[in-house]
Amino acid sequence: MSAFGVLLSAPADSETCTEIGSHLGNGCQFPAPTAAIFDWAPLATYHLFGVPIEVTKPAILLAIGTVLILAFFFVAFRKPALVPSRTQSLGELGYTFVRDQISREVIGKDGDKYVPFLVSLFFFVWVMNLFSIIPGAQFPVTSRFAFPVGLALVIWVLYMFLGMKKQGPIKFFTNFMFPPGLPKPIYVILAPIELLSNVIVRPFTLAVRLFANMFAGHLLITIFSVGAWYLAGPQVLGWIGATGSFAMTVALSGFEMFIQFLQAFIFTLLTAVYIGGSLHAEH
Amino acid sequence: MTVSHMLAFAAVAAEETKSPLLPNVSELILGTGAFFLIFFVLAKFAFPNIKKTLDERADKIEGGLARAAAAQEQASKTLADYQEQLAEARTEAAGIRASAQSERQAIVEEARTEAVTAAAAVTSRAQEQIAAERDTVATSLKREIGELALDLAGKIVGETLSDDAKARATIDRFLADLEKQAGQVRS
Lengths: 283, 187
Prior knowledge:
The complex is a heterodimer of chains A (283) and B (187). With 283 residues, chain A is mostly helical. Helix content of chain A is 65%, strand content 4%. The radius of gyration of chain A is 24 Å and the shape is globular. Chain B starts with a helix and ends with a helix. At the A-B interface, β2, α2, α3, α4 and α5 of A face α1 and α2 of B.
């Protein structure tokens, strides 16, 4: 029971204080959103070789996002012209952004082979992030840990495979475990750390960074949305609080737009760094 | 707070909360599958097209730039050529003008000399003619005056001075006197 609740009205019973019915005015406690808001009950469950495939809200958003990405690039790049149409220009902007700002910047000219992978990755992550603030969807698909984990696994496999292919199956590991020019005893400590860092920590942090950012962003927006709903009431104080809370929701949505792009960019950039590290042993 | 969130609250209320750090197997499969679908389809059908177009465009632009540079070079070369030719032509024109000037002077000089010579010839011829005429006139006058004087003298004297030799001597003497008088008058 909040302090304001005591001041403004009599304590309410548990029947009134449902999540939708809770208001400052009727003396209910603030129904703070928990991690439970990221749990979606499956609308249907199918079995694929005994593995349950659940149709949840994130799964539906995933499907919509996939179709949108495919449709956009199909329309944009179906019949590319030297003098591009508007849609083609827009697609080119995205393609060349990833190619020039990420691939060529990090890997170099020989990274051009991986541009299709990086462009797909960037737009996949970005669109799945964007659902966070799209009215009706309002849920970042990437805030479900499984999606970043899936991507990180794919990237990890690519990273390992390319590294072992280009540098040799043993040399790839020894190259980052034993960087030249250090006193011998240091390697006793450094080698295991480097191995752990490159093989286990890298994919894990890649997945967690994206997940945690989107998770936290969604939680924040939800808290202020719920706050606005909770504070709204017949009292002047309540309306002021509700307005402020709602303004915060709007401001956070704008901030989230930036974070969504940034996280997609960082995710793709780090992937490029890993691919670059596999192609040329530098450290 | 949106309707979907409210529904979410209602939906999950019954279930117990799972840790958000436990990847859901269904989502893992769906997410990876969706990414691979996007990657393979785009890498096969969309990106090769655009890569080709972008390369072509870059080629065109670079080719265009190279062509422009070549044209520029050609133009400046032509300009230099023209300027050189123009300078040459100017020098030539100046030379022609100078020679024309000297030639004209020569022509004028020649014409003048010619004219002076011609004039001198005309003058001398005229003087000669005048002199000849004067001589003729003088001779005929001498004879006429002599005859007249002879006639007159005959009439006065009443005798015929038929002796030609005598008469001629007389006339010559007379004429010499006349000339002497005339010479005195002239001087």
